[in-house]
Specification:
The complex is a heterodimer of chains A (about 220) and B (about 475). Chain A is α/β, with parallel strands linked by helices. In chain A, about 40% of the residues lie in helices and about 25% in strands. Chain A is elongated and about 55 Å long. The two termini of chain A are about 30 Å apart. With about 475 residues, chain B is α+β, with helices and mostly antiparallel strands. The chains are: A alpha/beta (about 220), B alpha+beta (about 475). Chains A and B meet through helix 1 and helix 5 of A and helix 4 and helix 5 of B. Bound molecules: adenosine-5'-diphosphate.
């Protein structure tokens, strides 16, 4: 999952990027409205975390622009403005959620999960595939009742493959969704991740097949 | 009791009306009394004529034939006693009651009047009696004359005079009362718009500071309403500014708090001591920044002209304060390898004002110069007098400030983009507020050769010791 974080305060942006990064999300940070617009037109994101008080281009303008272009990108507004009218205005502009600073990081995570669950998983809480059970909230993976340990990156790749189980996921999309600007995982690194996943999931009744030079596909083993 | 226009007007009016009432009543009374006295006196003359007609010669003697029945007729009313006396020219009494003798020589056939006091028959009372006296020639035409005196007590006259007095005073009194009442009503009517305004104002909610409707104000109170409206306008502007400030301040406080909360929950989930240490480092950094922000907010509140703290002016040495600030800032300069220096005339200048405020002014300007000047730059502070003014200047070789921003950077929370994370945007507004408490002016110029910035603060009457 790749997020764009549009927040002009360096400290908060760093904190959020670090926090979300440790939960396995890839986060790009934009410090101004302009940067955010640029990033949105350059890359594909799964979620936009948007501060309203951005320099150059205001957050609500970005949101309006986004919705005018017909984008369905989920948006969470984070702002210091806590008046009810502000909330209403923000949600009416097309935000999916609205958090007032200072918010609890756990709450932000929960709201992110809720939005992704709805958008990506159609409100399911768990994914079953073969003997594998993926719990979306905790990102825990069970194989036949036993917990299976993964690194954040492995877990992120697995999540992406599971979200499109039975369909081909292009390697490029996978890389892009996992990458943040600082550390773009190479194709090589991706192959290593896939290799580890295959090993850990050998008893799970699922298989990850490769379409060489193009992508991967996860499905129940026959 | 509060002064009341209505009561005051009424008081003055009643006093005036009262005096007029008494004077006019007195004048009317005396005039009426004169006319009534004249008519009573005419009756007395009639009586004297009747007495004269009764004087007859009988057997060579003069007799007055006035039987009691005739006497009763002579009395005009039954409340008063009637007296008469007939004398011959020598003053001998011929007939009638015993009355005091007149001044015979002064009498003529035109009656003269006087007031006498007459003891009653029993001697226990004294009657006031109006006496008419005249000299009549004898009916025989023998050249002899008589003197006739007729008199009556004053009961009827007095009663009439009371009636006259009452009939003058009462209507006038009622007129005066009606006048006062009319004035009272008139003033109440006149003041009614004030009451309407007052009700409109008291019915307002506490936050309603809109102008008072001056369309119904009478001319006399119009300037007052105008000044109230001006005051309200100033209050509105001030509250608006405060609201904006609070909104900004809350934004400025909430954002770093959100960062701190995020780090603290990361800390709670940290699995290793190294991770934990890193998070605590970040929290420490965030707290440092928040502390600075809060301090800046407090400094600003301190110098806010409407603020709660009353500044205590004192006389102090400007150079002392500056050296304290430079000592504090030297570490930052060293850390950035900035060539940091002071140019001054090595004298002390006393100034009267808020010492802490001035220290904040210096340290904000010096701190800005050091913050925004890149490493290996140059920052020079100077303190000089010129033309009876004291000039404090900070010169740096930093990025400079574009002309269009030179006004705006003094606004609260205003920061140039790319100014970094550590500032709050409050520093220069503190500088401006402090400067105004010293009646000093702050100016910004671009540095030599278009590099860097020069901030100059010019204080009036810097005194050399
Ligand atoms: N010496 C300087 N050189 C360049 N820019 C400056 C200087 N001093 C102030 N500024 C600019 O003016 C802005 C407002 O300054 P200030 O009110 O002191 O707030 P802060 O320094 O906390 O951001 C700063 O953000 C900075 O962009």
């Amino acid at each position: 999952m790749r997020f764009l974080l549009a927040e002009d305060d360096d400290y908060l942006a760093r904190a959020l990027a670090q926090g979300l990064g440790s939960r396995g999300y890839a986060v790009d940070a934009a410090r101004s409205g302009k940067e955010a617009i640029q990033a949105l037109s350059d890359s594909e994101y799964d979620l936009l975390i948007l501060d309203l008080g951005l320099p150059e281009v205001d957050g609500s303008q970005i949101l309006r622009l986004l919705r005018e272009r017909g984008s369905t990108l989920p948006v969470i507004i984070i702002t210091a403005r806590d008046a009810v009218q502000d909330r209403i205005a923000g949600l009416d502009l097309g935000a999916n959620d609205y958090l007032t600073k200072p918010f609890d990081f756990g709450e932000l995570e929960a709201r992110i999960r809720a939005i992704l669950r709805k958008n990506v998983w159609g409100n399911r809480m768990e994914i079953h595939c073969g003997l594998l059970r993926f719990v979306l909230n905790t990102k825990e993976v069970f194989v036949g009742g036993e917990v299976c340990e993964f690194t954040p990156r492995e877990s992120a790749v697995l999540e992406m493959l599971l979200s499109r189980a039975g369909r081909l996921v292009p390697k490029k999309a996978l890389v892009e969704h996992l990458a943040s600007w600082e550390e773009a995982p190479s194709d090589n690194a991706m192959e290593i991740v896939i290799h580890r996943l295959r090993r850990k999931l050998c008893t799970a009744g699922v298989e990850i097949s490769t379409v060489r030079g193009f992508g991967y596909l996860l499905r129940e083993s026959q | 009791m509060r002064k009341s226009i209505r009561r005051k007007l009424l008081l003055w009016l009643s006093a005036g009306l009262g005096v007029i009432w008494i004077i006019s009543a007195l004048i009317g009374y005396f005039l009426a009394l004169k006319f009534s006295d004249d008519s009573f006196d005419r009756e007395l003359i009639n009586s004297s004529d009747s007495v004269a007609a009764r004087i007859k010669f009988k057997e060579g003697r003069l007799v007055v034939d006035l039987p009691p029945a005739a006497q009763a007729i002579l009395r005009h009313n039954n409340r008063d006693m009637f007296f008469y006396q007939v004398l011959n020219a020598d003053g001998e009494r011929l007939s009638g009651d015993k009355l005091p003798l007149p001044d015979i020589a002064g009498l003529s056939d035109v009656p003269s009047f006087r007031l006498i006091r007459l003891p009653s028959a029993r001697g226990d009372k004294v009657h006031e009696v109006r006496l008419a006296e005249l000299k009549v020639l004898s009916p025989e035409n023998d050249g002899k004359a008589f003197i006739i005196q007729v008199g009556e007590t004053l009961a009827a006259r007095k009663q009439l005079s009371y009636k006259i007095l009452a009939s003058i005073m009462l209507p006038q009194f009622v007129t005066a009362l009606l006048g006062a009442y009319a004035v009272w009503i008139g003033i109440s009517r006149g003041l009614a718009p004030l009451r309407t305004m007052q009700e409109a104002i008291s019915a307002r909610s506490a936050s309603d500071l809109s102008d008072v409707d001056d369309s119904i104000s009478p001319e006399e109170t119009y300037p007052l309403v105008q000044s109230i409206n001006e005051l309200l306008a100033r209050l509105r502007a001030y509250i608006e500014a405060q609201k904006r400030f609070i909104a900004n301040a809350s934004h400025q406080l909430r954002t770093p708090l959100a960062g701190l909360k995020t780090y603290s929950s990361l800390g709670l989930g940290a699995e290793s001591a190294v991770e934990m240490k890193e998070v605590i480092g970040q929290i420490d950094f965030g707290l440092e920044r928040l502390t600075r922000l809060v301090n800046q907010l407090l400094s600003l509140a301190r110098v806010d002209p409407y603020g709660a703290t009353a500044l205590k002016p004192e006389v102090f040495d400007v150079a002392d304060v500056l050296s304290e600030v430079l000592t504090e800032q030297a570490a930052l300069a060293a850390a950035k390898s900035i060539d940091f220096g002071l140019e001054d005339e090595c004298v002390s200048y006393s100034i009267l004002g808020d010492r802490i405020g001035l220290q904040q002014l210096f340290s904000n300007l010096v701190d800005n110069a050091l913050q925004y000047t890149p490493a290996y730059g140059r920052v020079t502070v100077s303190l000089k007098t010129f033309d009876d003014r004291l000039f404090f200047a900070v010169r740096d070789t930093g990025p400079g400030i574009p002309d269009i921003e030179k006004e705006k950077i003094f606004e609260r929370f205003y920061r140039l983009s790319g100014a970094g994370t550590s500032g709050s945007g409050l520093g220069l507004s503190i500088v401006k507020e402090v400067a105004s408490t010293f009646q000093a002016q702050v100016s910004i110029e671009t540095g030599e050769n278009g590099i860097g910035t020069v901030f100059t603060v010019s204080f009036p009457a810097g005194r050399r010791d």
